[in-house]
Specification:
The chain has a single domain, classed as Neuraminidase (6 Propeller), CATH 2.120.10.30. Helix content is about 0%, strand content about 45%. The chain has no helices and 25 strands. A hairpin with a 5-residue loop joins strand 12 and strand 13.
Length: about 280
């Protein structure tokens, strides 16, 4: 929806948003690459990961550049999440690792053997990571293994599940992942056009949809679920999977979606170099 003054707005369920596109002030000294995913910390800072030198950039809530890091440590960032304790988890797809940093970019933990893919074990071209309410984190090991792995906060493996297929608990490219406050794990099963819902230990509970090649999942503090797909579209769902609204948030494909505590949503696209913000309006 466009107003007379040229401003763009969108509606998802009962919530209205002002669309700010492009958003943020990209630093002139850092080249722009393929922006793959984004995440927001407790202070409202936006972390984005891009596939080139300077792989992680941080912006404040006003769009000002804050810092960057990751040169020489991250080969191919595909997913990113910020834990409640402030640690930043980065999925390094082609290096077959999940890397855990502090907020300033100091490497704390590396999971997986760098540049050594594994079969039916972590990792083989992983895609995304999400942190659960107890601090455990879940990794969608999407392009090679079609599995989900659960880890304790210290990185100790807890459980893995999945396998290639289209039945309950099977995947064809698990691409995005999110965790609800009650511990349910949502996995964007891209090529099967669905979001599968699991217990924390991998028991299949339900399928949400329909979607067309779901790409990413964001869950806000009110337990509203936002799923981006390749229509391109973002859909808003209740915690029981009821779709309450959808819209086209970007020009091409929303590869990543995240949000802040105030309800602001951010979208990034791999086919453009643009960050889009949905700012809630009353």
């Amino acid at each position: 929806m466009e107003t007379g003054n040229g401003s763009l707005f969108a509606v998802l369920g009962e919530q209205h948003y002002r669309i700010d596109r492009p958003w943020g002030r990209w630093p002139e000294h850092i080249p722009v690459g393929v922006i793959s995913k984004c995440a927001v910390d407790a202070e409202g800072n936006l972390y984005i990961c891009q596939r080139r030198s300077t792989p992680v950039l941080v912006f404040d809530a006003e769009g000002n550049f804050v810092r960057s890091w990751g040169d020489g440590e991250i080969a191919d960032p595909h997913g990113i999440a910020v834990a409640p304790d402030g640690r930043v988890l980065v999925v390094d797809r082609d290096a077959h690792q999940v890397l855990v940093f502090d907020a300033g970019g100091r490497l704390l933990l590396a999971l997986g053997e760098r540049h050594r893919p594994r079969t039916q074990a972590p990792f083989n071209h992983p895609t995304d990571v999400a942190v659960g309410p107890g601090g455990d984190f879940y990794v969608s090991d999407g392009y090679g293994n079609t599995m989900v792995h659960r880890f304790a906060p210290d990185g100790a493996p807890v459980r893995s599940w999945g396998g290639r297929g289209s039945g309950p608990g099977e995947f064809t490219t698990p691409h995005g992942i999110g965790v609800l406050g009650d511990g349910r794990v949502l996995v964007g099963d891209r090529e099967n056009n669905r979001v599968q819902v699991f217990s924390p230990n991998g028991g299949h509970l339900a399928d949400f949809g329909p979607f067309y090649k779901p790409m990413d999942i964001h869950i806000d503090g009110a337990q509203r679920i936002f799923v981006s797909d390749q229509v391109p579209r973002v859909s808003a769902l209740t915690a029981d999977g009821t779709i309450v609204g959808s819209c086209k948030p970007v020009a091409v494909m929303p590869h990543g979606v995240s949000g802040a505590a105030d309800g602001t949503l951010y979208f990034v696209e791999t086919h453009t170099t643009v960050i889009t913000r949905f700012a809630p309006v009353s």
